[in-house]
Write a structure and sequence with these properties.
Blueprint: H1 51-60, E1 72-74, E2 80-82, E3 86-88, E4 93-95, E5 111-113, E6 123-124, E7 131-132, E8 142-145, E9 150-155, E10 161-165, E11 181-189, E12 197-201, E13 211-217, E14 220-226, E15 230-237, E16 246-253, E17 257-262, E18 265-270, E19 273-274, E20 284-287, E21 299-308, H2 314-323
Antiparallel strand pairs: 1-2, 3-4, 5-21, 6-7, 8-9, 9-21, 10-20, 11-16, 11-21, 12-13, 12-20, 13-14, 14-15, 15-19, 16-17, 17-18
Amino acid sequence: RGWDFDGSPNNCVDCVSVYNKLSIGKPIQCFDHFYGGSVDELVIFDRPLDRQEVYDIYSAVPRDCQDCDPNAYCTDGQQCVCNEGFAGSGDVCSRKTDAGPSPVSIPQPRYFWPMDKIDGQGLVDGSSRLIVGEGQYDVQMQVSLGIEEGAVVFNGRRDWLNAGDYSGQCFAEPDLCSEGFTFSFWLRYHERGQRDNVIFSSGAQLADGEGLAMWGKQGTMHVRVQTGTMRYECNFPAEATKGVWVNYVIRFDLDNGLVVTLDTQEVARSVGTPNAVQGSAPGTLAIGKYNHLDVHNGRFDMDNLAAWEVALSEQQVESIYNHGLPEQQYS
């Protein structure tokens, strides 16, 4: 208070601006907003470094267990080794699938989004349709290393993707799913504390909305499907999934209800409870936020999102995990 924009007291003669100092750990003019973390070997150059110099500095630093990929472990000798089922240097690990054809037949996904590339307008190329970022602001989403090539990063602030309007269709009105549906995707989940961490929704987050929704909060993951007469909801711990790639498969049909598996292991099942709804929710499938709000955006990385308008079997789910998705036939 009482300081001008130059960092000097108002009406001060011959005062020196506080902004001519370098402060590490807090803003120079404030006594709050302190940094929490560690800093080591800070070096400042009076010239821009070229790419090789930057790499030489990085590679000269001794490796540490903190450098390991989330899907790797650290040996006593401080070496990063990929977990079973993953391949790579240890610093970076990718999902390794079994060689050879799948032992069971898997139908082509109705929709498939590889999450491999994105442009400055928030556009992700999918094989059968496009996902378009339609946030209120100029969305500049990022792509990181995924299970297979790229993965889209949702930063938890304003990133989200619009996967299309499914009003009058299966994903927005599950009563219309004559054979059920299946969603399969890889997720690297990051907690958001007290706030809802929304993975996707098509209306089921609302008490009077049909569709589906998935969100995490305070260490618990919630998956919900609502028809015109029933609510199906699975809740399970999410702490062990934070920061690592996990294959989620969500299966639903009217006869067997809702089933959620993580890395082929069933973690929750719901046979549903009566719950009449009005079906007044929007039918947009929004990834990274609730489809009726521009808040509670999700914080996670996602790769290889596939959707079928049929409930796959346990054997097919296991085959997708071990052998990958069927080769895409889309143009």
